Amino acid sequence: MRFIGNKEQLLERIYQAVLATGVTKGHFCDFFSGTSNVGRFFKEKGFKITSSDLLYFSYVLQKAYISNNNQPTFKKLLQNIKTADNSLFSSPLESVRNYLNNLRGINGFIYKNYTEEGTKNQQHKRKYFTAENGKRIDAIRTKIEEWKQKKLINENEYFVLLASLIESVPFYANISGVYAAFLKQYDPRALKRFEIKPIKFYPGKKEHTVYNGDSMNLINGLNVDILYIDPPYNNRQYAPNYHLLETIAKYDAPKIKGTTGLREYANQKSDFCNKDTAIIALDKIAKTAKYKYLILSYNSEGIMPEKDIMFVLKKYGEVTLQNIDYPRFKSNSNGDSKHKKTIQEQLYILRG
Ligand SMILES: C[S@@+](CC[C@H](N)C(=O)[O-])C[C@H]1O[C@@H](n2cnc3c(N)ncnc32)[C@H](O)[C@@H]1O
Question: Which GO terms describe its molecular function (predicted)?
Fold first, then answer.
């Protein structure tokens, strides 16, 4: 998924940094999980994972990929719904996916608030999805919730379906990168017929734990081998930039406002989006949690200056720093440092 700060391209580098510490197995903590890519990677490498994020849609991904160890069978559901011949599909998920992709659209919350047709009589006209795609998202999301209410799907199956929906939305959203704005004209991507896509499974045997909340509240009593932290780098909070994914994940018909139909996010603000509170929060994590190694991913243009980070981390042990050239995330939301095409991703490695 396109996501600011997504570490997909850096996973091997992070892995090399972990291996260099001598830790090859044990408990890995990913406390700013976002797409959950880092947790997934280390789950596949055999680590026990604990992860967390302020965003609920991130929690959905963590539930589907990290704490879920099994391919869903949808046994009960498939006995209760009429699907096309199951033998046509490679897996039960494929069969359910096909059913969802063929639902008739409904005029639900997404259609009514985030499509041009649905908002035509409102003060703010919004063009995040075509009317047809808005209705399809509503129909799929409503059906998943109905199946959960009727106990036709178990918790893992519920989160796998929600994750498939969430992962699919960015392929049809009429945005450039983030949801803080929509495009005036339809991008060709937005005109395609909405379908939910399959997701990958991460089978496993270990018990993994995932949270939706402020990781600062979880550090007391934490005792892990690798504490990996990847907090925001700048003043931009994540919640308003991904508000629509949050609303589709929660589907809680929130009060929304303004041109972009933003939901309230007062309880999803991060200390790391303010340079004064960020350094205090970093100090608190390094001081309070117990770890063999703390690895901080940061960025050469982040609001916490390198010397301040070094000063804080060095209070708790020996620190090394790796710099990695990395392509800049492109979005239309602001124009910081347009000129440089790369930035430096940094890995601070603190031996606890
Ligand atoms: C740089 S992104 C992480 C990207 C992630 N490593 C990935 O590969 O997708 C920062 C994440 O930290 C989350 N976040 C910020 N402050 C947080 C906090 N105090 N507790 C939990 N999550 C937080 C944001 O919601 C965002 O998802």
Answer: nucleic acid binding; site-specific DNA-methyltransferase (adenine-specific) activity
Residues 139 and 109 in one domain: yes
The CB-side HSE value for 77 (13 A sphere, CA atoms) comes to 29
Q: What's the domain count of the chain?
A: 2
Residue nearest to atom 5 of ligand 1 (CA): 34
Ligand 1 atom with least separation from CA of 216: 19
Mean pLDDT along residues 84-108: 87
281 shares its domain with 197: no
Ligand 1 and 133: CB distance under 6 A: no
Residue 41, ligand 1, Cβ within 6 A: no
Residues 63 and 76 in one domain: no
d(CA 135, CA 123): 21
Q: Which tokens sit at 315?
A: 């209070």
Answer with the residue of higher pLDDT: 82 or 52.
52
User: Which residue's CA is minimally distant from atom 1 of ligand 1?
Assistant: 5
User: What is the rounded CA–CA span in Å between residue 256 and residue 291?
Assistant: 41
Q: Phi/psi of residue 221, each to 5°?
A: 85, -5
Find the domain containing 151 and state its range: 71-201+240-266
CA distance 134 to 140: 10
pLDDT tens for 30-55 read 999 999 999 999 999 999 999 999 99
DSSP letter at 63 equals I
Bridge partners (DSSP) listed for residue 51 = 30, 210
Tell if the pTM clears 0.85, that is, is over it.
Answer: yes
Residues 208, 338, single domain; the answer is yes
C-alpha 123 to ligand 1 mean position (Å): 33
Report the nearest atom of ligand 1 relative to the CA of 52: 21
Beta strands in 197-301 (DSSP E): 209-212, 223-229, 256-257, 262-263, 290-299
Q: Is the CB of 232 under 6 A from ligand 1?
A: yes
